[in-house]
């Protein structure tokens, strides 16, 4: 009889949880420990809050308009960022984290256009040179932030570690992004709830997943309300202002990294995000600011909200 | 900065994502088994009867082999895995005694009159030690027939690079064989002979991109001792054989088709003058999560050994052999496999058809060996994990 285990921990600024079926409590505990260690490895490597992280080393080079050689995992992540940047017409941009200097979602202050204008010249993936394995900054004061996709990548890495540990049934959840290791031992899918972007504690839709991943994002995660206007945390790197249009997007894909970037790019595209989601041919669900629900998963929406 | 053509966004993102070690299907480190697996295969090998017009003396019936193979894979601890293989087979049929020219000068076969019945037992065990990004395996084996005993041992190692995209592997093996041919009154056969073989290989496997893995390798071998066929009338071969070869393998994964194309090529060359080429394509198509279909096509062509003769003759001196394995020929294999896989078990079934012919060789063959084999191979099996 498989032994079920849930293990909660905190990483990458989010609550995380591993649910898995193992052969024994000891096997489960060992697997959970190794999965958590993998997530913590990525946090340590890519955290922008730690001086000893690779991100910090890259940003020290960026500060002086220098260059740095990176390892192959980071190189693949940079290649991925480049692809996402191209595919999103420059909206998915890992140099846009600099805008956080103007947008502080904790204090709730709306920045002035002048503050934003000071930052914009230092933002733009196209302004740096990436020749694997060398990353070169041609202007001072740029900054890289892997935070936009490393959590989703972490869910995929965690699932790979789980499989290596002989775990075939389970689910990894890193701050709302979910990667399924495999269905319940009897083959039943996991039932994943998508939170309602406006009604706290309520589920917008229930999705059955036997494999693959689902990522969700929206303006409910972090935002500033000012004079009746809602400013979400998803910032357009071209204007420096929060995007308007969709307030919640969820995408299902084989890998959490793909689901996550599809979600982010859809939000960044604003009103045309739903067209873009249609073009991907992946299952998706979105809600706009008027509460209208779109997407191929709309049938999964609880009837009260449909 | 590389420019990626902006076409299908999902395909572009998937391709980029698959270069990441944790996401790539290709770059998973070999890890110690965590479960015990027991496997069984039954296979039946049946050579076609020989055309009557190719036989001078004897029965047209050829070999038929029934094979039962067992495998156990089990973890010994977190770093050690044990694999034990055993097989038992029974062979029956007639084998070629020699090739003689008929009245028109055409080579014709002389088959052993009586049916050969033989049994063969193989046992081998290997222990593999898994480390962070590599493994080392030691194996020992025994093989025995009525007239034949062989012992072998090997060591193999594999190491992945830090980025897990490159794997280096290599191995060396030695076998020592003893032959005590069964005697038939009136036929002069050697009573006891032995031979040994030393083989080695090195290979490099590289994840080229998201869905493509390439492997290249070299192999070599040195065989020493009695290397002829003791049951043939006049089969005199050198007592050394040095071989060298190159292999290349490609694995293309096509997630959108839920399929993978395996392409294998092998070049072989030895100092007996034989060169051969093998090219194989296997298409692994997933139909459902559990069910996979694997059609296969293999082409083989070899040139003849320097001492190959169309027919046996006491007038020949020095090295000589009319064995079809020393002759020039080409062959095509068609196969189909079905795999049904659940978490706890796997069911497999395969059929293969092999046809060989002088006309299928890459180089033109003047005189085809009459003993060239055509066969059907069928196998079924089950693996159980617990």
Describe the overall structure.
The complex is a heterodimer of chains A (306) and B (386). Chain A is α+β, with helices and mostly antiparallel strands. Chain A has 3 domains: 1-46 and 163-182; 54-144, ApbE-like superfamily (T-fold); 189-306, ApbE-like domains (T-fold), CATH 3.10.520.10. Chain A is 30% helix and 27% strand. Chain A has 7 helices and 15 strands. Chain A has helices at residues 25-46, 54-63, 72-87, 113-119, 150-164, 256-268, 273-280, and strands at residues 3-11, 14-22, 67-69, 128-131, 134-137, 169-174, 177-182, 190-195, 203-209, 213-218, 223-226, 229-232, 246-253, 284-288, 293-294. Chain A has an 8-stranded antiparallel beta sheet with strand order 1-2-6-7-10-13-14-15. In chain A, a hairpin with a 2-residue loop joins strand 4 and strand 5 (134-137). In chain A, helix 1 runs antiparallel to helix 5 (150-164), helix 5 packs antiparallel against helix 6 (256-268) and helix 6 packs antiparallel against helix 7. Chain B is 2% helix and 58% strand. Chain B is an all-beta fold. Chain B is built from 1 helix and 19 strands. Chain B has one helix spanning 9-17; strands at residues 37-47, 55-57, 64-75, 80-93, 96-101, 107-111, 116-131, 134-145, 148-160, 166-179, 193-209, 212-225, 240-254, 259-270, 275-286, 291-302, 329-341, 345-357, 375-385. Chain B is globular and about 70 Å long. A 16-stranded antiparallel beta barrel of chain B has the order 1-3-4-7-8-9-10-11-12-13-14-15-16-17-18-19. Chain B has a 3-stranded mixed beta sheet with strand order 2-6-5, with no helix packed on it. The longest helix of chain B has 9 residues, at 9-17. Mean pLDDT of chain B is 88; it is low at 1-5. Classes of the chains: A alpha+beta (306), B mainly beta (386). Chain A binds chain B through residues 71-73, 76-77, 79-80, 82-84, 86-87, 129-131, 153, 156-157, 159-161, 164-166, 168, 182, 185, 211, 254-255, 257-258, 261-262, 265, 276, 279-282, and chain B through 1-4, 6, 9-10, 12-17, 19-23, 28-29, 31, 34-35, 162-163, 165, 255, 289, 343.
């Amino acid at each position: 009889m498989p032994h079920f285990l849930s293990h909660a921990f905190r990483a990458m600024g989010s609550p995380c949880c591993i649910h898995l079926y193992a052969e024994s409590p000891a096997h489960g505990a060992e697997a959970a420990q190794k999965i958590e260690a993998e997530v913590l490895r990525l946090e340590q490597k890519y955290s922008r809050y730690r001086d000893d992280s690779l991100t910090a080393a890259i940003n020290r080079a960026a500060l002086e308009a220098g260059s740095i050689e990176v390892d192959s995992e980071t190189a693949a992540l940079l290649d991925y960022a480049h692809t996402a940047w191209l595919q999103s017409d420059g909206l998915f941009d890992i140099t846009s984290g600099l805008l956080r200097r103007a947008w502080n979602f904790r204090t709730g202050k709306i920045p002035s256009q002048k503050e934003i204008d000071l930052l914009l010249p230092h933002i733009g993936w196209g302004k740096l040179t990436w020749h694997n394995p060398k990353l070169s900054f041609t202007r001072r004061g740029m900054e890289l932030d892997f935070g936009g996709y490393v959590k989703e990548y972490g869910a995929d890495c965690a699932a790979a570690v789980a499989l290596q540990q002989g775990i075939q049934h389970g689910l990894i959840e890193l701050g709302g992004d979910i990667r399924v290791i495999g269905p319940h031992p009897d083959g039943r899918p996991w039932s994943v709830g998508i939170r309602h972007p406006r009604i706290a504690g309520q589920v917008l839709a229930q999705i059955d997943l036997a494999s693959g991943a689902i990522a969700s994002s929206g303006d409910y995660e972090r935002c500033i309300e000012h004079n009746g206007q809602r400013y979400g945390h998803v910032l357009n790197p071209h204007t420096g202002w929060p995007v308007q249009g969709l307030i919640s997007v969820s995408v299902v894909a084989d890998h959490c990294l793909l689901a996550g970037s599809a979600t982010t790019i859809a939000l960044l595209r604003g009103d045309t995000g739903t067209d873009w989601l249609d073009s991907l041919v992946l299952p998706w669900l979105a809600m706009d600011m008027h509460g209208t629900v779109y997407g191929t998963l709309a049938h999964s929406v609880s009837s009260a909200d449909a | 900065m590389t420019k990626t053509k902006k076409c299908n966004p999902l395909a572009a993102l998937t391709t980029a994502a698959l270069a990441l070690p944790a996401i790539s299907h290709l770059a998973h480190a070999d890890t110690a088994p965590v479960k015990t697996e027991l496997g069984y295969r039954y296979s039946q090998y049946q050579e076609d009867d020989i055309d009557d017009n190719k036989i001078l003396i004897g029965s047209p019936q050829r070999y038929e082999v029934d094979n039962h193979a067992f495998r156990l894979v089990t973890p010994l601890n977190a770093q050690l895995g044990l694999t034990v293989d055993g097989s038992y087979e029974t062979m029956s049929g007639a084998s070629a005694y020699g090739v003689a020219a008929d009245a028109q000068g055409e080579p014709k076969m002389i088959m052993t009159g009586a049916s050969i019945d033989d049994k063969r037992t193989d046992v081998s065990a290997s222990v593999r030690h898994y480390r962070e990004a590599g493994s080392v395996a030691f194996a020992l084996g025994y093989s025995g027939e009525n007239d034949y005993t062989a012992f072998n041992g090997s060591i193999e190692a594999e190491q992945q690079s830090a980025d897990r995209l490159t794997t280096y592997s290599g191995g060396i093996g030695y076998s020592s064989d003893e032959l005590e041919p069964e005697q038939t009154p009136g036929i002069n056969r050697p009573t006891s002979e032995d031979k040994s073989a030393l083989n080695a290989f090195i290979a490099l496997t590289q994840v080229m991109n998201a869905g493509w893995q390439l492997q290249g390798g070299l192999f070599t071998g040195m065989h020493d001792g009695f290397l002829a066929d003791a049951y043939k009338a006049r089969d005199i071969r050198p007592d050394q054989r040095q071989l060298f070869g190159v292999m290349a393998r490609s694995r293309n994964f096509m997630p959108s088709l839920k399929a993978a194309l395996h392409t294998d090529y092998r070049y072989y060359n030895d100092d007996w003058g034989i060169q051969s080429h093998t090219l194989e394509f296997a298409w692994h198509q997933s139909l459902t999560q559990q069910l996979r279909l694997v059609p296969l096509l293999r082409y083989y062509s070899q040139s003849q050994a320097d001492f190959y003769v169309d027919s046996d003759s006491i007038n020949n001196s020095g090295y000589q052999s009319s064995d079809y394995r020393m002759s020039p020929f080409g062959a095509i294999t068609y196969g189909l496999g079905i795999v049904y896989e659940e978490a706890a078990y796997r069911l497999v079934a395969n059929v293969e058809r092999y046809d060989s012919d002088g006309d299928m060789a890459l180089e033109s063959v003047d005189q085809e060996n009459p003993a060239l084999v055509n066969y059907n191979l069928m196998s079924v099996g089950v693996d159980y994990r617990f």
